[in-house]
Amino acid sequence: MEVFGPSAAPEAGRNGASRADEAVLILARLLGRQIAREQFERKLALERKAQKKRPAVGNV
Asked: With helix as H, strand as E and coil as C, how does the chain read?
């Protein structure tokens, strides 16, 4: 991810509030992805744990 500092020239039609709104949306998106990733990893771990408890087919 590339991070750019503030530009020297002000952007046309963009005030501080809209930039803040955009930043909040970006952070919310990143947080949502992280939460989804963690939930997915927990789900996989539970599935693996359940498979270990289940006897293997063909080993009877």
From this structure: CCCCCCCCCCCCCCCHHHHHHHHHHHHHHHHHHHHHHHHHHHHHHHHHHHHHHCCCCCCC
